[in-house]
Amino acid sequence: MSFDIDITLQRGDRLIAAAFSVPAGITALFGPSGAGKTSILQAAAGLLKPQRGRIIAGDVVLFDSATKTNLPPEHRACGYVFQDIRLFPHKRVRDNLLYGWQLASEERRWMALEEATDFLGIAHLLDRMPRTLSGGEAQRVAIGRALLSGPRYLLMDEPLSSLDVARRGEIMIVIERIRDELGLPILYVTHDREEVRRLADQVVEVGVG
Amino acid sequence: MGGLSADEWGIVALSLKVGVVAVIAAMPLAFGFAYLLARGRFPGKVLLDAVVHLPLVVPPVVTGWLLLLAFGPNGPAGRFFENLFGITFMFRWTGAALAAAVMALPLMVRAIRLSIEAVDRRLEATARTLGAGPWRTFLTITLPLAMPGILAGAVLGFARSIGEFGATITFVSNIPGETQTLPLAIYAALQLPGGDAYVLRLALVSVLLSLAALVASEALARRAGYGKGGHVL
Questions:
Q1: Does the structure's ipTM exceed the value 0.85?
Q2: Which of A47, A84, A149 faces B131 most closely, judged by CB atoms?
Q3: CB spacing of A46 vs B128 below 8 angstroms
Q4: What is the CATH number of the domain that holds B140?
């Protein structure tokens, strides 16, 4: 599956332009803070509407200003892993994990709860409330929640930045396994060269324009 | 509490009925206004905000008189409700509940609005990316997260309702067994000589009910996490 993105985004009084076409694997969107990397991810997820352009994932047109196509986020089948994690605070880990899974149709699910909890090593956390989790545990749950929603691709926004150094290595291994064992395409936002070097199959430089 | 007579229990029961019905009737409207004011962007929002809060600052006797004009037998709203649902308000307990609902509305809107504003919109966006449409997101994320504030608003509205005096006595008069709630019964007793013990008992019940409601609403508001103080008033 490939990504084909060519968009112009208005953020406040700034214009962010991005145009790239990449194959599957992990694509790092690399650049300094404030360059608009997160905005590009949000546009891919349908949380931000570009001024113009198009976003195509595989053979599905997610957005095209020319044909006025704009799939709502719930129909895009993207798994979004946020920088600030965003577990639902009123639901237990189990219900967080199953939130997207229950909404996905039978044929869109490609992972069961037990597979996900084994894969991520979070089976012992199922009955906990999110506020009792450590940063690394919470981020693994958030990744599991995204995987269980039956995504066709993952959008990861600096998933390591809210973690301490020890936890970073742990999550990085999880991300490598998602790429190698699950074969899921990932758009990966970071401003860290080390992450790019270790994880990325291809790099898209996002500059301050 | 065993010291209350059957008549006095009747007054307490009527007050509770008026309070509960007022809160139930006001809740959909209060939630709608609160949501609009918390999330809406439309011209006239400042004006709507002011109008919703009017019963808080207008003399209650004026509110009662306006209710009389609108919901009396010849008022447009009064005729509408009588023809459509067979509900009349004049000199009825339903009128007392209506007056209480109008007076409670601003407090309920305030509490609910704060709780909706406190809901993290990023969590709603997260739910959307996980496959939930706008309605499901509202029902599974927004509403549960705002629920402590909604309950706090309901309890606060209830407390305001059972304390309502001015608009009620103006609109539906002071009829024992029909519109005579706790404050109206206390007022009536004060007009007669030798009713001190009676007044004291009813006043005590009033204070206890209000206190319980306030404590409950503050506790709920703290759970909703309106900042450190957790005050809805």
A1: yes
A2: A149
A3: yes
A4: 1.10.3720.10
